[in-house]
Write a structure and sequence with these properties.
- The complex is a heterodimer.
- Chain A has helices at residues 6-15, 86-94, 130-136, 198-203; strands spanning 22-25, 44-47, 51-55, 76-83, 100-104, 107-109, 114-115, 139-143, 156-157, 172-174, 178-183, 186-193, 209-218.
- Chain A is an alpha/beta fold.
- Chain A has one domain (6-218): Glutaconate Coenzyme A-transferase (3-Layer(aba) Sandwich), CATH 3.40.1080.10.
- Chain A is globular and about 50 Å long.
- The two termini of chain A are 16 Å apart.
- In chain A, 45% of the residues are buried.
- Chain B is an alpha/beta fold.
- Chain B has one domain: Glutaconate Coenzyme A-transferase, CATH 3.40.1080.
- Chain B has helices spanning 9-13, 37-44, 65-70, 88-95, 106-118, 181-186, and strands at 5-6, 24-27, 51-54, 74-79, 100-103, 122-125, 139-142, 145-151, 155-165, 171-172, 188-198, 216-219.
- In chain B, strands 1, 2, 3, 4, 5, 9, 10, 11 and 12 form a 9-stranded mixed beta sheet that branches. In chain B, strands 6-8-7 form a 3-stranded antiparallel beta sheet.
- In chain B, β4 (74-79), α4 and β5 form a beta-alpha-beta unit.
- Classes of the chains: A alpha/beta, B alpha/beta.
- The A-B interface holds A 47-51, 64-68, 72, 77, 83-87, 89-90, 93-94, 118, 122-132, 135-136, 163-167 and B 30-34, 56, 58, 80-85, 90-91, 94-95, 101, 103-108, 110-111, 113-114, 125-133, 173-183, 208.
């Protein structure tokens, strides 16, 4: 059994985004989704610092300090894009105009609660736009580079124990082992990595799993 | 004749109404884009104390907002994301207990400022309901969904960075350097704008911040 790489997870998530969707990609791994837009599809990427139509990173010499993404990295703007101020940007989010928000997470609970902004420790807390995104986007997808934390703790749980970002808001989870829908009855596995047994996936998950009829198999591809 | 232009940064911050110890300042910018760094430097040089600064981030490196923090001018930060690559000055002050911090979700921060500028004292948002950042706040249910009441933010001073402006105070911005600047310009008693270029007149169709919101404007170059 070979877990998916981050690009594999991003490619899998990108397949589920319909043509014409307005999508906000969180800082970190979710940003990779922009590199795997299937041929023939057009998504409009929203960056909460005031940009629709976000394009790929420019060559280093073409970087413009006035044109950055929410992770403060240089980006470009695609034809059809627009700039706007922060209140308009979050009106797009809070007003339900963003179709999909894809974020990283420390924990996701079987009822759709998510914790992704605060860990115990001396560092000052920082939330950014995460609470607005999970409260406002029509669909919230959590992306996990690893199904289980490095210390073996479950990330998919019955109840989050870390400070919450939002309540009952996650619709789907993409991890290195599976794609899981969050349903009123809890976690429903729709895809899992080939060579992985249902029992092993359940053991790696801190809440009961159900398996969809015709559950698809995922294969690691990207180098 | 209306003329809001000042010849220098020092002139722009001299005898400025509402700029005093203990004042609340809105400071534009997101990361390093659209930060009014030259106005920040001019205000730091005034040696004010116990300022409350509202800004999305808490500075990085040894420039911009970080210099105002390092100079000991700021008693409290209100922001959404104080941790950045290089936010050393803030993190040291925070660890030493020398600065207060209020964390606000970014969209709630933007709307609190927008509301402040628009004369709306408070509003309800779903953001933060049921989380530590919504704890202790008044809540209300509308149409089966829960909301948190958030208060508007009004400040004494706003510091704005814009790409171009004219003598009436009309402003335009560059790309994502716009960010919080237009809403902050609306929410302070006295708004000061630094512009890369003063022009005879900003095209009325292109004005993003109408001059009614701006009291003082100074050209700082590219």
């Amino acid at each position: 059994m070979k877990p998916l790489s981050a690009p594999d997870i991003a490619r899998r998530a990108a397949r589920d985004i319909v043509n014409g969707a307005y999508v906000n990609l969180g800082i970190g791994m979710p940003m990779l989704v922009a590199d795997y837009i299937p041929p023939g599809r057009e998504f409009v990427l929203h960056s909460e610092n005031g940009l629709l139509g976000m394009g790929p990173a420019p060559a280093a010499e073409a970087a413009d300090p006035d044109l950055i993404n929410a992770g403060k990295q240089p980006v470009t703007i695609l034809p059809g894009g627009a700039y706007f101020h922060h209140a308009d940007s979050f009106a797009m989010i809070r007003g339900g105009h963003i179709d999909i928000s894809i974020l990283g997470a420390y924990q996701v609970a079987a009822n759709g609660d998510i914790a992704n902004w605060a860990l115990p420790g001396p560092k000052p807390p920082a939330v950014g736009g995460a609470m607005d995104l999970v409260a406002g986007a029509k669909q919230v997808w959590a992306m996990l580079s690893a199904h289980v934390a490095k210390d073996g703790a479950h990330k998919l749980v019955r109840r989050c124990t870390l400070p919450l970002t939002g309540l009952a808001c996650v619709h789907r989870i993409y991890s290195d082992l599976a794609v899981i829908d969050v349903t009123p009855e809890g976690f429903l596995v729709t895809d899992m990595v080939e060579g992985l047994s249902e029992a092993r996936l359940q053991a790696a998950t801190g809440a009961p799993l159900r398996f969809a009829p015709g559950c698809r198999r995922l294969r690691a591809e990207a180098a | 004749m209306i003329d809001k232009r000042f010849a220098s940064l020092a002139d722009a911050v001299a005898d400025c109404p509402d700029l005093r110890d203990g004042a609340t300042l809105l400071i534009g910018g997101f990361g390093d884009a659209g930060v009014p760094e030259r106005l920040i430097d001019a205000i730091r040089d005034l040696g004010l104390r116990d300022l409350t600064v509202v800004s999305n981030n808490a500075g990085s490196g040894d420039y911009g907002l970080a210099t105002l923090l390092e100079a000991g001018c700021v008693g409290k930060m209100v922001c959404s994301f104080p941790r950045s690559a290089g936010s050393i000055v803030f993190e040291d002050l925070y660890a030493a207990g020398k600065i207060d911090l209020e964390i606000v979700p970014q969209g709630t921060l933007a709307e609190r400022i927008r509301a402040g500028g628009a004369g709306i004292p408070a509003f309800y948002t779903p953001t933060g309901y049921g989380t530590p950042l919504g704890a202790g706040k008044e809540t209300r249910e509308f149409d089966g969904r829960h909301y948190v009441m958030e208060r508007a933010i009004r400040a004494d001073i706003a510091l704005i960075h814009a790409s171009a402006g004219d003598r009436w105070g009309n402003l335009t911005y560059a790309k994502t350097a716009r960010n919080f600047n237009p809403i902050m310009a609306m929410a302070a008693s006295t708004t000061l704008a630094e512009v890369r270029q003063l022009v005879d007149m900003v095209d009325p169709e292109a004005v993003v911040t109408p001059g009614i919101f701006v009291k003082r404007i100074v050209e700082v170059g590219p």
